[in-house]
Amino acid sequence: EHYLKQIEEQKHLNVFLDVYDTEALAKADELQEKLDAGQPIGKLFGLVIGIKDVLVHQNHEVRSASKILEGFESQFTGTAVQRLIEEDAIIIGAQNCDEFAMGSSTENSTYGPTLNAADNSRVPGGSSGASAVSVQAGLCMASLGTDTGGSVRQPAAFCGVVGIKPTYSRVSRYGLIAFASSFDCIGVFSNNIEDNARILEVVAGHDEYDSTVSREDVPVYADNLQFNKKLKIAYVKETLENEALQSEIKEATLSKLEWLKSEGHQVNEVTFPHLDYLLPTYYILTTAEASTNLSRFDGVRYGYRAPEAHNIESMYKLSRSQGFGEEVKRRIMLGTFVLSASYFDAYYTKAQKVRRILRDETRAMLAEYDFIIMPTTPTTAFQLGSNRDNPAEMYLEDIFTVQANVTGIPAISIPNGTDTQNLPIGLQIMTDIFKESELYAFADYLI
Ligand code: GLN
């Protein structure tokens, strides 16, 4: 009841596309009865959690914030959401995002932008912007988002909350509407590390419905939050020298590094000369994957069909032209181009090779260092509308976050103070694959 009231009172933030009020209250009653009857309770008993509108949920609408899925209801529940339900969490509703998770501001939603609760004239980041705001504004305790190139970490940074992108393959993608399948990761937003760790532990792990998901054991992350060893930490010279980096973010990052040194940890500057190749590699490969993933939205099987279609070709053309927004169309066109017969080798194959190099270099760095630290974003939350007409500017927002997705490693964004306008600053920590336990413990120590 408390959270439903908060949602109602803060409707202007435009966080929820659906609120499952009756259902959530019924679930709460059911949980109370379970407790009264002394029955065993789940690991997430009573946790009130929201889910990004790209995670399917049986008999509930899901739209990826797109017109093309208008009216579509899923016939099944995806693995991550199913596991939350099985552990007695209460799903409170579906949360706004950029259409098909493409964007960095939640402005690319058919359902209008979500507002940052710290300053309503600013974006919350994206694409999981509403999932970040829901935690920031106290509309639920935690939420599930997705991170293909930064969509959990960047909004977490803009909203001053904790957001993790786990190792690629750590969480099943079954029931996650695909954007770029070799990058997509389900991640968690929360107010603190312990909640985050407890939720990831539940959603992570092997699943027979996703052939790419890992069989690696899932540790009890929250039981391993203590550590007392001296660490080797790297920071990347090129990130702190980046021209686009807001000075207050640079200072906040440097002061954390200084503090770590004063605590006796080894902190070294390293160089990552291929940093400039991260964004092009990311945008070539993700648009390629998106163009094929989104070919299934054809007016036949899901959601929207243009009413004036009169044959199969006009049905495809009109439904897709009217159903997809501008950014999604841009990505489909880019992706189709890089996959076209005459350009395939020059772009797609080349980008795959560069991806391998970037991964090997990143993993080599992590063989030497426990963690890499950098800012999550080059700026704090920007004004609504300010990057709208300039997609290239918007893509630069992802400069520090895409490395983890291109290379598959886990990364977390934690709050690291505020700038002079009182806007949250995020600090990003990256580590080697499947070291989420260490990542959480270190993040908890830093907060
Ligand atoms: N902002 C990035 C993009 O637009 C990341 C999106 C994401 O992680 N889903 O592609």
TrEMBL record:
Keyword Nucleotide-binding in record: yes
GO cellular component, as recorded: glutamyl-tRNA(Gln) amidotransferase complex
The EC number(s) this enzyme carries: 6.3.5.7
Keywords for this protein: ATP-binding, Ligase, Nucleotide-binding, Protein biosynthesis
Catalytically driven reaction(s): L-glutamyl-tRNA(Gln) + L-glutamine + ATP + H2O = L-glutaminyl-tRNA(Gln) + L-glutamate + ADP + phosphate + H(+)
InterPro entries, A to Z: Amidase, Amidase_dom, AS_sf, GatA
Domain Amidase residue range list: 1-439
A biological process from GO: translation
Gene Ontology molecular function, alphabetical: ATP binding; glutaminyl-tRNA synthase (glutamine-hydrolyzing) activity
Family matches, as Pfam families: Amidase
Active site, per annotation: K52 (charge relay system), S127 (charge relay system), S151 (acyl-ester intermediate)
First-tier enzyme category under EC: ligase
UniProt subunit comment: Heterotrimer of A, B and C subunits.
Family to which the UniProt record says this protein belongs: Belongs to the amidase family. GatA subfamily.
Cited function: Allows the formation of correctly charged Gln-tRNA(Gln) through the transamidation of misacylated Glu-tRNA(Gln) in organisms which lack glutaminyl-tRNA synthetase. The reaction takes place in the presence of glutamine and ATP through an activated gamma-phospho-Glu-tRNA(Gln).
Name of the protein in its database record: Glutamyl-tRNA(Gln) amidotransferase subunit A
Organism: Marivirga salinarum
